[in-house]
Design brief:
The protein has 155 residues and is an all-alpha fold. The protein contains six helices and no strands. It is a multi-pass membrane protein.
Length: 155
């Protein structure tokens, strides 16, 4: 059991390192574009009109779903690093001794006392706040982009 806990902590530490190198936004936009390609491919096979562009195949519901899915993926991958960062920022105890020494210590203690679920404490509120906002953002982004492309074609 001790070896499994050490491997889990090492894996979490690597994930924290990885998410500090690869940002939340990069994960979200990459996931959005890749999911968009899959949906466009599926809808173009389903549609008889092979000459239609991606703009014609997707609607606002598709954009909302893609935006929510990509935000969900980004949050799930980066949330443990947010938990670790926020725990490092906790005030010291009354004695002036910090509860955690560094991110490795936070990872070990969280895994030891709370298990894997400890790295995802509070994720529900975060999801309820950010997923709908991402859906709306991508609906607006894609529709404005489509209007600008249409205006450019008319000129």
């Amino acid at each position: 059991m001790e070896g499994a806990l050490q491997r889990a902590c090492a894996c979490m530490y690597f994930c924290v390192f990885l998410t500090t190198v690869v940002t939340h936004g990069a994960i979200q936009f990459t996931a959005y574009e890749e999911l968009r390609k899959v949906v466009v491919g599926y809808k173009s096979k389903e549609s008889e009109l092979s000459s239609s562009s991606a703009d014609d195949l997707l609607n606002s519901i598709d954009y909302a779903t893609l935006g929510a899915s990509s935000k969900l993926a980004a949050i799930i991958l980066t949330y443990p690093s947010q938990v670790i960062r926020s725990r490092l920022q906790q005030r010291p105890s009354k004695d002036g001794i910090p509860r955690y020494m560094d991110s490795w210590h936070v990872s070990k203690e969280t895994a030891r006392f709370e298990g894997f679920r400890g790295f995802y404490k509070g994720i529900t509120a975060n999801l309820l706040k950010n997923v709908p906002a991402a859906s709306i953002t991508f609906i607006v982004y894609e529709n404005v982009l489509n209007m600008l492309k249409l205006a450019r074609r008319k000129d």
